[in-house]
Amino acid sequence: MKPESAAFAAAELRANDRDRYLATLVLPEKERGAITALYAFNADIASIRDRAREAAAGEIRLQWWQDALAGEGHGAVRANPLADALLDAISQHGLPVPALSRMIEARRFDLYDDPMPDLATFEGYAGETASALYQLAAMILNRGPVEPGDAAGHLGVAHALIGHLRAFGYNASKGRIVLPRDVFATCGVSEMDVRTGKESENLSVALTRFADLAGEHLRKADLAIASLPRDLRSVFAPIALLRAQLKRLNLDAPFAPQPDLADWQKIAVLGWWKLRRG
Questions:
Q1: Based on the domain organization, do 269 and 181 belong to the same domain?
Q2: Are 125 and 261 members of one domain?
Q3: What pLDDT, on the 0 to 100 scale, is given for residue 132?
Q4: Is the pLDDT of residue 64 over 70?
Q5: Which of 86, 112, 138 is the C-terminal boundary of a domain?
Q6: 3-state DSSP helix/strand/coil % of the chain, to nearest 5
Q7: Nearest to residue 159, comparing CAs of 228, 102, 223, 240?
Q8: Over residues 131-135, mean pLDDT
Q9: What pLDDT, on the 0 to 100 scale, is given for residue 108?
Q10: Alpha-carbon span 54 to 38, nearest angstrom
Q11: How confident is the model at residue 79 (pLDDT cuts 50, 70, 90)?
Q12: pLDDT value, residue 149
């Protein structure tokens, strides 16, 4: 991997997904560059909605990535340092392109204001995005095919749930309902309640259900991680940070910015977990 492309990917990740950037600091140095490129690619496609003025522009950007993975416009693609770093990571570690293509397809949901219909669909979305990211990173760390299965699956769903609980107010202000609509409906919360920022006891109940579900997935992920070879576990260090963020959620003020740890605290949490578990 070209040093300049690797440095660009690291800078992009640090700017666009700081938590995952901090998580790369506990990874082995030899594999850190490839995983950083993978995470930076994910951060790019995850942030397209916020950067695109309209859905059509976002579709074009996602299609650009699909074409890049398919080998179309090879020279022009390699001129993009992030794509250059990602393609090198794919080549060097044998990453499955179909998994990355599915990740891009899943992100098309982000471009529109249609609510997430139900929990099964949300878990599928989380599986193609967050869980797949853990799976691919584990492949890089293993230097070949690996099956972290339950660890990647459960931690990916927990990651998605906690991330969207933390971003609930922001998404609502943009007219988006990313957490499953059916759970809100069961608790007596309408789409309009969410979109207009209406706080209520019913909303707190719904969000508490999501938080409890995230906690259950973290528990199952923790058990699965413990059964993995120790050399693979550092990829799953974000579990410690997610657990700390889940504890700090203020579900009584769901539309307000959620409390978080300072960077130095996050580094300490990740490092301590790595020392004990990874």
A1: yes
A2: yes
A3: 96
A4: yes
A5: 112
A6: 75, 0, 25
A7: 240
A8: 96
A9: 95
A10: 26
A11: confident
A12: 74
Count Cβ atoms within 10 A of the Cβ of residue 192 and give its class: 0-12 exposed, 13-18 middle, 19 or more buried: exposed
One-letter amino acid identity for 264? W
66 shares its domain with 132: no
Domain termination residue (choose one: 112, 136, 171): 112
Give the separation between CA 34 and CA 6, rounded to whole angstroms: 8
Residues sharing a CB contact under 8 Å with residue 194, sequence separation 6 or more, in sequence order: 172, 177, 184, 203
Cβ neighbours for 274, distance < 8 A, ≥ 6 positions apart: 26, 234, 237
**To the nearest 10°, the Cα dihedral for 122, 123, 124, 129?**
90
Identify the pLDDT of residue 232: 92
Please tell me whether residues 276 and 187 are part of one structural domain. yes
User: How many domains does the chain fold into?
Assistant: 2
CA distance 231 to 37: 20
Block residue for tokens 């409906």: 185
At residue 277 the predicted structure's pLDDT band, cuts being 50, 70 and 90, is: confident
pLDDT (mean) for 213-223: 97
The whole domain housing 269 covers 113-278
Segment 110-128 shows an average pLDDT of 96
CATH number at residue 187: 1.10.600.10
Nearest to 77 by CA among 67, 91, 92, 88: 67
